[in-house]
Amino acid sequence: MRNLKATDVPDLVRILEATGAFSEEEVGVAVELLGIVLNDHSQQDYEVAVAEVAGRVAGYVLFGPVPLTQGNFDLYWIAVDPTTQGHGIGQKLMSHVEEQARARGGRLVCLETSSQGNYQRTRRFYEQAGYVEESRIRDFYKPGDDRLTYVKRFTSREER
After folding, report:
1. Does this UniProt record's set of keywords contain Acyltransferase (predicted)?
2. Is the pLDDT reported for residue 157 higher than 90?
């Protein structure tokens, strides 16, 4: 894992497009957020970790603390090059986010995804990583496309 460099952006765009999971508009938002991380050094909302395999960019994750909360983190984007999927890179990226959250007193990590069928593999990946569906807002993105929020807690409710 390493920090984002400006020279990573073309590779990350290629990866985002190659996954087939993101629309053109979503790729545009992802690139905009990468630009914020690279160009606004005073911002504290987003962090990026980049994974490499054999010296090539293999994926990334964008995450950050949720403002005005105590110990909550959001995982905003995660993408792994399809040619390297299934080799644990996504798991390493998720673990990195969780380690960073825990190191800062994080209580939970949240992420959002779509209910659409083409996101089934993504939802299974999150579930295998220990995330559970916490909420569903029906027809959020468009009619028939619900927003699902997945959460991984680091402390149980009984401990509070």
Report:
1. yes
2. no
CATH code assigned at 138: 3.40.630.30
| Residue burial 60-93, b: 16+ Cβ < 10 Å; e: rest | bbbbbbeeeeebbbbbbbbbbbeebbeeebbebb
pLDDT band at 158 (very low <50, low <70, confident <90, very high): very low
Contact 133/120 with Cβ under 8 angstroms?
no
d(CA 31, CA 152): 26
Residue 132 belongs to domain spanning? 2-159
d(CA 49, CA 70): 22
Domain count, the chain: 1
* Paired sense of beta strands 56-65 and 47-53, if any: antiparallel
